[in-house]
Amino acid sequence: MVTGMHRGGTSVLARAVNLLDISAGDPARLMPPTEDNPGGYWENLRVAQLHDELLAHLGGWWSVPPVLEPGWELDPSLSPFWTWGSQLVQDHFEPYGRCFVKDPRLCLLLPFWAVLTPIGPTLHGLRHPGSVASSLARRDGFSAEHGAWLWLRHVDGAAATTPDALVVDYDDWFVDPDVVLERVAGHLGVGEPTRRHRAAVRTWIRDDLRRSDPAAPTGPLAEAAADVHAAVRSRGLPAALDVLAALPFEWRTRPPA
Q1: Of 113, 117, 165, 183, which residue is most buried, by most CB within 10 angstroms?
Q2: Residue 120: which of 155, 165, 83, 167 has the closest Cα?
Q3: Largest CA distance in the chain
Q4: Reduced to 3 states, what is the DSSP secondary structure of residue 122?
Q5: pLDDT digits (tens, 9 = 90+) for 236-257
Q6: What is the distance between the alpha carbons of residues 228 and 11, in angstroms, rounded to a whole number?
Q7: What pTM value is reported for the model?
Q8: pLDDT in tens, 19-65
Q9: Which of 42, 212, 36, 231 is nearest to 152 (CA)?
């Protein structure tokens, strides 16, 4: 599984996994590139559709995700979604050998998939929340505080559900892609990257993929997000929970205007 915040470098991470000869599943179902993401999303369209409808069923949406209680994935009302998800696994992934699933919504919804199929190592794409907020402001018109809140919700969800995920910082790809690729390959247990793997990733990682510089924190959530980013970058996802514990209890349920 490849998780991480929207606009947070998950597509770069997923493509690197793919270049290590792990399949993205049915190629006919991949989300096509867009102007916002010319390198492609490496995301299954049917999985994204399921996630959107599942979030709606749970009372939220990608930009205002619901707060989910432990054990939510076992609710009998999810039976139609279990059937849908199992069919996707059978049709779009199992025929292609070892596969990955990538979607930012997995930060919140990964427990759903754990009910349906064994899940291997998980990777979490991390990007500075200021860069994510700048990208969301340009694409969706979100305020800096809403972008920070949404970033925090996704990191919070990932820390709670996949604390052992390998954190891969987006900016590190542009500093030393070989080192990052080695970390990813080691976590996935696929052996040392070959010269072919390294060359493919170096060719694909281009400076024009970095379109948003970090915005300076302008509010309490943006400041908290910057602190969480520093903690997760140095100590992994569980470190996020230490910082988030200092926020008001209701922060998850109250998105900023």
Answers
A1: 165
A2: 165
A3: 50
A4: coil
A5: 999 999 999 999 989 999 888 7
A6: 22
A7: 0.94
A8: 999 999 999 999 998 887 888 899 999 999 999 999 999 999 999 99
A9: 231
